[in-house]
Amino acid sequence: MAQINENFIKIPATYLxxxxxxxxxxxxxEHPEVxxxxxxxxxxxxxxxxxxxxxxxxxxxxxxxxxxFRGYGPEQGYAFLREAIVENDFKAKGIKLEAxxxxxxxxxxxxxxxIGDIFDKHNRVAITDPSYPVYVDxxxxxxxxxxxxxxxxxxxxxxxxxxxxxxxVPALPTEKVDLIYLCYxxxxxxxxxxxxxxxxxxNYAKENNAVIxxxxxxxxxxxxxxxxxxIYEIDGAKNVAIEFRSFSKTAGxxxxxxxxxxxxxxxxxxxxxxxxxxxxxxxxRRQTTKFNGTSYAVQRAAEGTYSIEGKKQVQTLIxxxxxxxxxxxxxxxxxxxxxxxxxxxxxxxxxxxxxxxxWEYFDYLLKEKNIVTxxxxxxxxxxxxxxxxxxxxxxxxxxxxxxxxxx
Length: 407
Fold this sequence. Notes:
The chain is α/β, with parallel strands linked by helices. It has twelve helices and 15 strands.
């Protein structure tokens, strides 16, 4: 008898974005004549930078010839990309890292979901509420989350509330935790932490031998000076933090798939008897066993974003979506909404009208305005009463969506 991992049947049967897609498809089938504007899932609308496409074409051409053909590559990523990441994303900001602390992957979603493989299932996990669903679901799959409750929480997870009452700045847990998920700029709320606020978490992790799992997928959208682009801008963070990055939103790689994870060599975990073990070695072992590496052509495309022209083209993409975020934020405010985010992130967190829950308001916007958002309740209990707007639509659709709401 092949027994299943019963943790899988404890989690909701439908992933948040799958449920959204199902409702949108049904509405489209019932009303094929309407134009639906999609401001829900964080997929991008602009094409890849020319520098990336040119690099990918060149890499593909290399595969035609025996002299330049590449088969299996290093599971950790090619040196040319890892070195470019160190030089441009970290050294340029005064952060010292080495190439073998970078692990190239097919995206931050995979890595934030898979990182739990190197941690014991008895670790106590703290997760911001609301948060990206992958953090909760993958811990539940691993048996680390405990049991689901009627209100959608899990018995073994420690929830760090982020809401208007605390200005979306989570308080330190009142009980000891071992793993801490932080995402800043935040998905879904679009809010951020200052360097001083993030330092509080680094200090907590030092004092409690905890590890911070820091999702920095949206760092390129930061516009304010006191908001850190990397947790490693905080003194001592390399001793307590793993950082996740992505080319998806910055360079439009949502379908091309490339990201990376930083695991500093001085970052330690502990065995049951208290012995220290380098997490860099564990993650390397996990990747060499379960991952065969990101394709050569895609890694060349990612490398292309660091060329002189590539940097200009990526900045053009960021500027476009940042302007969309401004249009959405100001448009919602003019329509009478209470909104957060949209300054350092491509997401705007909007409060639902009084008396309407997240899914109720999602359905209203879909059926009455033909606008797709993301219901806040899908990100956790503290997301109830909000919807998330994404800034990744076209300019035309972004303006039209705001006009529909104002009407």
